[in-house]
Amino acid sequence: MTYMEIPEGWSGGADAITRQFKFENFSQAWGFMTRVALLAEAANHHPDWRNVWNRVDIRLTTHDAGGLTQKDIDLARAIDKLT
């Protein structure tokens, strides 16, 4: 996995990638999380995440592989399409 493959707006490296999303309010943040949850279920690949009011922090890693995999990159790209 090279750093060139990490989608724009995401940061990290061999272990995981992260990104923070900000919204106008809690309802928009929660709606975004709901849409991400549907993507994650469809991909059978789930994020580590945290929500504080209008902010959603997402961390993607593949626990079974012990680090970043193509599954994480693909989910990050799918999440980006929601914004």
TrEMBL record:
One Gene Ontology term of the molecular function aspect: 4-alpha-hydroxytetrahydrobiopterin dehydratase activity
Pfam families: Pterin_4a
InterPro entries: PCD_sf, Pterin_deHydtase
Enzymatic reactions: (4aS,6R)-4a-hydroxy-L-erythro-5,6,7,8-tetrahydrobiopterin = (6R)-L-erythro-6,7-dihydrobiopterin + H2O
Gene Ontology biological process terms in this record: tetrahydrobiopterin biosynthetic process
Record's keyword terms, sorted: Lyase
Domain of life: Bacteria
Gene3D superfamilies reported for this sequence: Transcriptional coactivator/pterin dehydratase (3.30.1360.20)
Record-listed E.C. numbers: 4.2.1.96
Family per similarity comment: Belongs to the pterin-4-alpha-carbinolamine dehydratase family.
NCBIfam families attached to this UniProt entry: PRK00823.1-2, PRK00823.1-3
Matching HAMAP family: Pterin_4_alpha
Annotated protein name in UniProt: Putative pterin-4-alpha-carbinolamine dehydratase
Protein source organism: Jannaschia helgolandensis
